[in-house]
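Render this sequence as a predicted structure.
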Amino acid sequence: MKLWRVRCTLPDRPGALAVLARDCGAAKVNILGLQIFPGVETVTDELVLSTPPDWSLVDIAELIEAAGATSVSGAPCTERALVDQPVRYVLAARSVLAQPASFPEVVAELFDAESDPAEGMLTPVQDVMEMTVGDVAVQVRRTAPFTATEHARGSAMADLVNDVLARTRAEGAPQPPAPGRRVDPSSRPEYVASAGEVSARVDGTVVGVAVLGAPDQGTEPGALQVTLEVDPVWRRRGIGTRLLVEAARTAAGRSAEEIVLSTEADNQAVLPLVLAAGLRGRIRMASDRLTVRIPVRDLRPLPA
């Protein structure tokens, strides 16, 4: 048997779901999971279906549409789709409470973010849901449209992160010490900018660098790709934040409209980095990549 996660829209009338269940049973398709997102005149149902191994999404769509449903979308899934939905949200809230920086990664998994439309999708246009943390907009995209219920849940998750960050700032929570060799607390990096990069140096040694790529390196017109790296021993000292700000200023000097950072989806340093820099960024989460786009004109100077 083959597992599928499928969404469809049913008319909000008695018996509509019963007709779908009857037709699935007749076709030897088993409904293993069901989540309902109510609307005003229609209802969005998310189904986990077990089908014969030779079935495709087209076969599923024909079956569901014959039962009166519309807006069918779906993709193959694993047994993880059978996890109880309230449990998923509780675990997600627990994760962001313990580590607010994990918010982009957590919501990407929670709302089934996609990198590209899955092969065989009937509706390749992706929907987007945006949640705001501080001045940073976090976006997740997928083929199945987000419901009003999911938008409300995403907003509540973002509010939770904002509350945690506000409480942390109020309490003045100390940053963990950097690992590795001892460093002189009085050491202050010098920042050196050129047309193509910004480096942080201590006693002539480079401890961090932000490299600006050429406009044609896989980015949109007016955007510059930025690669940022800080020596692990010198992290959590504000160097990455300063490098990002100086890189944005350098990009603005090159008449760029925005800078773009791309990294692994589980990189939890990105959200605190953008927030600390005072930048109005936009984080897009995909299944395996995290992309940040920052308009350089929105740059705010760091406190002295």
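Summary. The radius of gyration is 23 Å. Confidence is low (pLDDT under 50) at residues 173-182, 300-304.
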